[in-house]
């Protein structure tokens, strides 16, 4: 009966902490509505991108004594040519995705190209007389011309081997010219000059362009057993970061709520009333359990959105059920580290500033996964990643990186050892945090020094 009563008290505290956190406006706005706001922002950005694709019209004057460049510029500014360039860029971007996602990506990019490529109605005026430059500049200034390009004969010749810099052409635009219009004119004239050089050398531009087209690579990762699997460079960097940040955001968000609530209850003397009904250990267990439910809620919200995105991108097969199961284990481990630190620090101090001072040494270790993000994702089975997998309290975050980044399975002994070693350290943190919580929860005054904290742990 006594154990049942104690468990009932722990559950009561847990439910109270959970309700006091998730039913607040701050939590709803900061955690639940944040994905909705992010999605709305993405829609607004997409809408704004479409708005930027407004028609571009006007006249571009080109001073070119040879007369070779203006007709090529007109071709570069044609809708056909611009669509070809956009489709080539989108195809290159889609090639970086996994094979299963390339079909959907190409279809989506084709739709984006159809809407994003602006309607261009630019008339090219060829000018052979350089004496008209002053009058044309005046027309650019008053907005009568969309721009003025001045082509020198040296630009149409290949750069000599001993030349310090490549020859340039001059592009003059009005004060109100939008950056995208300026970039369009710059790119079109430069490409036309290259085509004029090729024609001047007696070569066929279409044939050379086809020869210089880069082929798409089908990257295959060779496993130790000799089997092959498709390789996605983008996924190998994005997935590890996403999984680590999911665990990071969930545990530290709930841990911050735990820290703040403990400090507020202690400073407002509410803690004394609560301790009249429950013991310090029941209160600590209830708080850890309550904020564990908050962590699960955060993971559910952000994780479901992330996996929905993977499913839409046809990349869900990149994450195996075994990997998800291990990530769940490391999520529990990460929360154990963070919750015990936050509860212990909150019970020992009177305000957040003092708590940050106590947590700074440990938080420096918690930054280790961020510092090792690139080395670990680049070589998840290397010695650095392996060694970092056994440094508490960064163990769960490093292992989340390795699980998502590794093309080959992580050695089973390392996974098992990291779990056993990590939860052993969670037990140490919980033991020390409980002793600090028991002594510090009712103490007032200046924050304890590290030596005093050690004395609390030994004496309690």
Task: Describe the protein in words.
The chain is α/β, with parallel strands linked by helices. Helix content is 68%, strand content 6%. The chain is built from 19 helices and six strands. The longest helix has 35 residues. It is elongated, with a radius of gyration of 32 Å. The mean pLDDT is 80.
Which short descriptors sum up this protein?
460 residues, D-Maltodextrin-Binding Protein, domain 2, four-stranded mixed sheet, alpha/beta, elongated, 68% helix, two-stranded antiparallel ribbon
Strand order, main sheet: write it out.
2-1-3-4
- Unreliable segments of 5+ consecutive residues: none
Count of separate DSSP helical elements: 19
User: What gross morphology would you assign?
Assistant: elongated
Work out the count of structural domains.
Answer: 2
Helix content: 55-70%
Radius of gyration: 32 Å
Summed up, what is this model?
This protein has about 450 residues and is α/β, with parallel strands linked by helices.
List the helices and strands and how they pair.
Layout: H1 2-22, H2 25-52, E1 56-63, H3 69-76, H4 79-94, H5 99-116, E2 120-127, H6 133-141, E3 147-150, E4 170-172, H7 179-200, H8 205-211, E5 220-222, E6 228-230, H9 233-267, H10 270-275, H11 280-312, H12 321-348, H13 352-366, H14 368-371, H15 373-378, H16 383-388, H17 395-405, H18 412-440, H19 450-459
Helix pairs in contact: 1-11, 3-7, 4-5, 9-11, 9-12, 9-17, 11-12, 12-13, 12-17, 12-18, 18-19
């Amino acid at each position: 009966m006594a154990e049942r009563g104690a468990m009932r008290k722990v559950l009561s505290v847990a439910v109270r902490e959970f309700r006091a956190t998730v039913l607040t406006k701050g939590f709803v706005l900061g955690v639940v509505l944040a994905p909705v706001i992010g999605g709305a922002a993405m829609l607004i950005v997409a809408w704004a991108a479409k708005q930027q694709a407004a028609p571009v019209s006007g006249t571009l004057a080109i001073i070119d004594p040879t007369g070779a460049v203006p007709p090529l510029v007109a071709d570069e500014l044609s809708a056909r040519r611009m669509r070809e360039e956009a489709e080539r860029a989108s195809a290159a971007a889609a090639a970086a995705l996994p094979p299963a996602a390339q079909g959907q990506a190409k279809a989506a990019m084709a739709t984006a190209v159809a809407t994003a490529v602006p309607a261009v109605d630019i008339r090219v005026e060829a000018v052979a007389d350089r004496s008209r430059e002053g009058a044309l500049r005046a027309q650019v200034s008053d907005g009568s011309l969309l721009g003025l390009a001045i082509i020198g004969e040296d630009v149409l010749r290949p750069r000599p081997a001993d030349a310090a810099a490549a020859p340039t052409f001059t592009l003059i635009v009005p004060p109100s010219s939008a950056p995208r219009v300026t970039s369009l004119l710059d790119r079109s004239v430069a490409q036309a000059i290259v085509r004029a050089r090729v024609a001047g050398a007696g070569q066929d531009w279409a044939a050379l362009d086809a020869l210089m087209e880069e082929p798409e690579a089908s990257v295959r990762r060779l496993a130790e057993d000799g089997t092959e699997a498709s390789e996605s460079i983008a996924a190998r960097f994005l997935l590890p970061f996403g999984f680590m940040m999911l665990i990071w955001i969930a545990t530290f968000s709930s841990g911050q709520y735990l820290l703040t609530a403990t400090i507020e209850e202690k400073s407002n003397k509410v803690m004394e009333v609560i301790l009249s009904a429950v013991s310090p250990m029941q209160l600590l267990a209830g708080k850890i359990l309550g904020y564990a439910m908050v962590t699960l809620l955060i993971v559910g919200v952000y994780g479901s959105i992330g996996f929905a995105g993977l499913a839409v991108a046809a990349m869900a097969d990149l994450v195996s059920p075994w990997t998800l199961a291990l990530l769940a284990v490391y999520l529990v481990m990460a929360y154990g580290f963070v919750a015990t630190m936050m509860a212990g620090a909150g019970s020992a101090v009177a305000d957040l500033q003092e708590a940050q001072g106590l947590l700074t040494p440990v938080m420096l270790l918690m930054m280790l996964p961020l510092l090792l993000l690139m080395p670990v994702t680049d070589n998840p089975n290397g010695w650095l990643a392996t060694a970092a997998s056994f440094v508490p309290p960064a163990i769960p975050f490093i292992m989340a990186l390795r699980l998502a980044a590794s093309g080959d399975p992580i050695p089973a002994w390392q996974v098992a050892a990291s779990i056993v070693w990590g939860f052993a350290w969670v037990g140490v943190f919980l033991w020390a945090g409980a002793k600090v919580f028991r002594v510090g929860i009712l103490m007032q005054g200046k924050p304890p020094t590290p030596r005093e904290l050690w004395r609390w742990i030994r004496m309690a």
